[in-house]
């Protein structure tokens, strides 16, 4: 199965488009959840949506996706509302309240789902698909709904860009500046709930939290600018949806939702390692480079200190330098290697196994000291 099949196969095209829309929408709104350190919100809301799906089916007797998602939205939003009440009127912390609501609502959802499955009605079959998603059942109208919801979320984020930005980075200043902090928080939380509920059919309640958090985590590694982070998060989310759909369609009985989550998780892990500036490998290389530069300056400074105490033309052996009066001393092997590096830079020179600081080396260390304010 290749990228060309997306344009030729109607079902694959529908699923790929729906998954891409979900990824892009989740990436945009998930950025704020990550920046506000509310990553657990996605997990709590997605799990709390399960009882809403079950109750909606019991009340309507229909598997109409609009009714089921409405029930999921009410249930998910109610869980966050209860969390806010708990932290406002008790000493329970935010993450503890979220974890409690996650367990309670998900447990209730499983109980309701088990009860529904025992009802002698064939119409209830398939509801368990919401646990891990059923992307292959996406229809054209589902994609249209995703497009409308996603478009609405992006428009609201654009209109409240300044307010959401202030709320994410400095909520205290947001409040004292006269912005309605509680209303903004309610709007942002509601948007997160809507995005999560919209993606339940594709990824499921168990894995939906990854679609909210992973794209934003990956994007955060590549930039410090909010606008770029939102765009990158959206691109990563959409890309994972398309790639996951292609991979799952090329292998029989391979569920689309979990594959999409694996892809976006892989993108996040790769970003954590190789992203410039923040990536683990990048930081290791930078630390190694800084350590090498520090060693060079320390050794050069030691030679400079010794030369200023003497007549300025005296050379020093490795043994002299290894026990110099500098702040740091180095083993002979390390010292010799660093001196050779300094020699290639024409900062020191060696003659008769004694090391001398050059004019260039003197200028270098005096500039370095000047930068430190000495």
Automatic annotation (TrEMBL):
Transmembrane segments: 12-34, 40-60, 67-87, 99-116, 143-161, 186-214, 226-247, 259-281
UniProt keyword Transport present: yes
Pfam family, one: ABC-3
GO biological process, one term: transmembrane transport
Record's subcellular location: Cell membrane
Keyword check for Kinase: no
Topological type in the membrane: Multi-pass membrane protein
Entry keyword set: Cell membrane, Membrane, Transmembrane, Transmembrane helix, Transport
CDD domains per the UniProt record, alphabetical: TM_ABC_iron-siderophores_like
GO CC terms of this entry: ATP-binding cassette (ABC) transporter complex
Gene3D superfamilies linked to this entry: ABC transporter involved in vitamin B12 uptake, BtuC (1.10.3470.10)
InterPro entries membership: ABC_BtuC-like, ABC_TroCD
UniProt record similarity statement: Belongs to the ABC-3 integral membrane protein family.
UniProt-recorded name of the protein: Metal ABC transporter permease
Organism lineage: Bacteria, Bacillati, Bacillota, Tissierellia, Tissierellales
């Amino acid at each position: 199965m290749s990228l060309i099949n997306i344009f030729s196969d109607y079902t694959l095209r529908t699923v790929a488009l729906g998954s891409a829309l979900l990824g892009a929408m989740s990436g945009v709104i998930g950025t704020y959840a990550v920046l506000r350190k509310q990553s657990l919100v996605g997990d709590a809301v997605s799990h709390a949506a399960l009882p809403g799906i079950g109750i909606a089916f019991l009340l309507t007797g229909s598997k109409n996706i609009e009714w089921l998602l409405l029930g999921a939205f009410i249930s998910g939003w109610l869980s966050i509302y209860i969390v806010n009440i708990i932290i406002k009127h008790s000493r329970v912390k935010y993450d503890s309240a979220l974890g409690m609501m996650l367990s309670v609502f998900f447990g209730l959802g499983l109980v309701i789902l088990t009860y529904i499955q025992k009802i002698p009605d064939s119409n209830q079959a398939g509801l368990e698909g919401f646990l891990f998603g059923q992307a292959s059942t996406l229809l054209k109208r589902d994609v249209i709904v995703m497009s409308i919801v996603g478009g609405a979320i992006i428009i609201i984020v654009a209109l409240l860009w300044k307010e959401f930005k202030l709320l994410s980075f400095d909520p205290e200043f947001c409040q004292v500046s006269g912005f309605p902090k509680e209303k903004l928080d309610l709007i942002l939380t509601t948007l997160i709930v809507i995005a999560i509920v919209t993606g339940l059919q594709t990824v499921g309640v168990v894995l939906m939290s990854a679609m909210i958090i992973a794209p934003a985590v990956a994007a955060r590694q590549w930039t410090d600018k909010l606008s770029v982070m939102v765009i990158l998060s959206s691109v990563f989310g959409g890309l994972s949806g398309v790639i996951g759909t292609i991979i799952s369609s090329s292998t029989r009985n391979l569920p689309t939702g979990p594959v999409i989550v694996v892809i976006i998780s892989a993108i996040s892990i790769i970003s954590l390692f190789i992203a410039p500036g923040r990536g683990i490998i990048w930081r290791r290389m930078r630390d190694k480079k800084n350590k090498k530069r520090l060693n060079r300056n320390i050794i050069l400074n030691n030679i400079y200190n010794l030369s200023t105490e003497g007549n300025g033309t005296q050379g020093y052996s490795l043994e002299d330098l290894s026990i110099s009066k500098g702040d740091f001393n180095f083993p002979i092997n390390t010292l010799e290697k660093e001196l050779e590096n300094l020699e290639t830079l024409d900062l020191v020179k060696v003659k008769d196994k004694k090391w001398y600081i050059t004019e260039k080396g003197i200028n270098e260390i005096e500039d370095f000291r000047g930068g430190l304010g000495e």
